[in-house]
Amino acid sequence: VAKRVDPSGPTSPGNAGLGPLADPDTVLQVLRHLALHWAPQPPQRKHMRHHVRSRLSVAHGFAGVLAALGEGPAAELADEGGESWVVENVSAGGFGVVLPRHADGEWLRVGTLLAMQPEGGNGWIVGVARRVGQTAPGQVRVGIEILSKAPILTRFRRAGWDGHGVLLRGAAAHGGEVQ
Predict the structure, then answer these.
(1) Does residue 6 carry a pLDDT above 60?
(2) Which residue from 123, 11, 139 is spatially nearest to 57, judged by alpha carbons?
(3) Is 66 exposed, middle or buried (0-12, 13-18, 19+ CB in 10 A)?
(4) How far is Cα 88 from Cα 117, in angstroms, rounded to an integer?
(5) pLDDT tens string 42-97
(6) What's this model's pTM, rounded to 2 decimal places?
(7) CA distances from 66 to 47, 76, 87, 91 (A)
(8) How many CB atoms within 10 Å of residue 114?
């Protein structure tokens, strides 16, 4: 049986419901990721979790991160969601937190940028919400990936634009890369 090859390249199956813009390479990466994580033996965590019970001051969104790092008035930090969350576990890669479900928590979604300051600490950590789920009525659990333990507020200038941004310094173990 001969198979006809389309010279324009591979496409995703029409019945997959991915739309006409679905990039075959991206679809393949997602399928490989799902196969790995849905396997009978999913990959192990990279870092060991340690159970703790402490508080974490949190601001959300890019404006909240800027306010936490010192750009903008302190009142802006409160407006951007300055909250206190309870940390249940911690690892080298992130935090597991629990918080009461509240009406203004509509902003909390997977991918939300967070600025966090551990109780008793004087520096801020930048991370991103990777898991958000309600485990009991009135209770939300959030898995947070740490992006940088030493973020730097920086001023960027480009033709026609001048503003603040955040450099996310990596750990020395990872070559100290900056994002």
Answers:
(1) no
(2) 123
(3) buried
(4) 15
(5) 666 666 777 878 888 899 999 999 999 986 544 445 444 568 888 999 888 888 99
(6) 0.66
(7) 29, 10, 23, 25
(8) 29
Tokens of 77: 């930090």
- 3-state secondary structure labels for all residues of the chain: CCCCCCCCCCCCCHHHCCCCCCCHHHHHHHHHHHHHHCCCCCCCCCCCCEEEEEEEEEEEHHHHHHHHCCCCCHHHHHHCCCEEEEEEEEECCEEEEEEECCHHHHHCCCCCEEEEEECCCCCCEEEEEEEEEEEECCEEEEEEEEEECCCEEEEEEECCEEEEEEECECCHHHCCCEC
The amino acid that residue 11 corresponds to is T
pLDDT in tens, 28-47: 888 887 887 787 876 666 66
Lookup result for tokens 């800027």? 66
